[in-house]
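Hello, quick one for you while I still have it in my head. My current little project is about how a certain protein chain folds up. You're getting the sequence in one-letter code plus the fold written as C-alpha cells. Would you mind checking whether the C-alpha cells look sensible for this chain? Here's the protein in full, and shout if anything looks odd to you:
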Amino acid sequence: MADRQNRVGSKFGGGGVSSTQQSERERKERLRELALETIDLAKDPYLMRNHLGTYECKLCLTLHTNEANYLSHTQGKKHQAG
C-alpha cells in the first residue's frame, strides 16, 4: 500500500481537495446569505414571484429562477440603469 499522506501537494489535516463544483456551490450560498442579510426582498418593490415559482423583475421585465439570480441581477447594469 502506498503512503498517501506524504505525497506532493497534500497538506497535513487538509481533509482532501473539494471539487470545483462543490466550492462554487458553497461560494454562491455564502453570497446569497450575505445578500439576504443586507437586502430585504419582502420590501423590494420590483420583485414579483409568479405562478411558476420563478421571480420577475418588474422594472426590467426579466425572469429569474431563484432569489440568488434575482439578487445578482439587482447589482447589474441593466437593473441599475432602469
